[in-house]
Structures are given as C-alpha cells and as structure tokens.
Amino acid sequence: MFKILVIEDDSTLFHEIKERLSQWSYEVKGIEDFGLVLQEFTEHKPELVIIDIQLPKFDGFHWCRLIRSHSNVPIIFLSSRDHPTDMVMSMQLGADDFIQKPFHFEVLVAKIQAILRRVYNYSTENNVQLKTWNGAAVDYEKNTVTNEAGTIELTKNEIFILKLLIKEKNKIVSREKLMESLWDDKRFISDNTLTVNVNRLRKRLEEIGLGSFIQTKVGQGYTAKEETAL
User: Fold this and answer.
1) What residue spans in the chain does CATH classification 3.40.50.2300 cover?
2) Could you state one GO cellular component term attached to this entry (predicted)?
C-alpha cells in the first residue's frame, strides 16, 4: 500500500481527497502542524506528496524546496492559482506535476497512478541500470550522473527523460512520445510542463559539462547526442 502525504489546510478538501484515495487502497496522511511540515514528512515517510501552494505560515513552494533538499519523493502541486508562473515555479523546484483547482478526482488518480508506476516500477525492469554516456556513468536506480567533473543527482522526472533520450541516442524523440511515456496520457499534462522539465535537466547536466548534449530540435523534439570514440 502506497502512503501519500497530503499537505492541504482546507479540511473539507483534505477529507474528500483522503476518502477518494482510500477507495484506491492508498494510505493517506495529513498535516497536524503547518509549521512542522518537514518534520511530519520525515516521520510519515510517504511515497508521494500532494501539496497546496497557499498554506498557513509558509507556502507550498517553501516546503517543496525543503522536501526536495532531503528527498526525491514525487510531488504533485494542487492550487486554485492559475498564473503560468506558479506552474513553472513548481517544476523548477522539482515537482512532478501541477493540478489546478477545481479538478476531477479521476484526473488526480490517473496522475498519481502514472507517477507511482514510473517512479517505483521502472527500476525493476529487466534492463541495465548503469549506462555509460559521453564518458559519464548514468545510474538509473540512484538517479545520478557521474563523470570527472563530479556527480549530479536528478529528480525522477529528469532521470526518466534522460533514460528515454539515451535509449534513442542520436535520434530525435518527439515531444508527444516523451509526454506519453512520462504521463501515460498526454491529455493530462501541458506542453509547457515538458519544456520546463527538459530545460531543468539540461541545466543540471551543464554542472558537469554535459548540457550541450541534450539538443532541442525545433518543431520535432529532443536528441541525446553521443560522441563517437575515435
């Protein structure tokens, strides 16, 4: 049974989310003290976090930043705010998805299922978990990329995108294929969200000199270039 931590101060909405998700056999926990969110997160050890932006004391961005500094647990934002910068900020902080209120519970459940399948099942596939790419060791299980310049740790979304691109190295992977692979059904994810995730991946790779190997093919998709050894 997957444990989900819901960081939502609207008690009516929280209990509705808890009731609906319990029907899908998820164990749902809430927050008792909104000044101690990180402490309660550590105590509950959830497999997924759902968090609102507008919260008492500190907003959801603050807690997302703190949670992400300690864990790569999947994070979904829920918010009634509809400004595009809120979604961009969420993705830049390492969130896996963003759902605007009001929402259909069927969409929330579909997104949760897709993320949990991707995060907790793909690493058990019968394939190689350590890949060499442009002189770097890419560990799909530990979510790290290591070369002589150092080691970076990626989010689940970032490592999954990199894995898909490396699998088709030197070939163009369409945006549609990436969205379908990441979220199972592209109707549930915006085109802008994919752009933010890829840009964040490229920025992280730049820290160890690999950012230029993820190339954008305008109007087509993305390519993971690999140098051919002489």
Assistant:
1) 3-122
2) protein-DNA complex
